[in-house]
Amino acid sequence: MKKKDLKKLTKDQMLENLEKLKKDLFNFRFQKVNGQIKSTAQIAETKKNIARLKTMIEVKNA
Hints:
- The protein is mainly alpha-helical.
- The protein has helices at 3-7, 11-34, 41-61.
């Protein structure tokens, strides 16, 4: 997710995306433990996207 894409979203859409990313991260962790994940880079990218969303939500609140 890019910053310009996040700016277009409403706060509710950001919260929905945040919940989806948290669920994805949870599933990636299980896949990693079980050896099912193909690319561990997905975990890092998901964490970065979560951080971006949290930052943009705080900016919208201010």
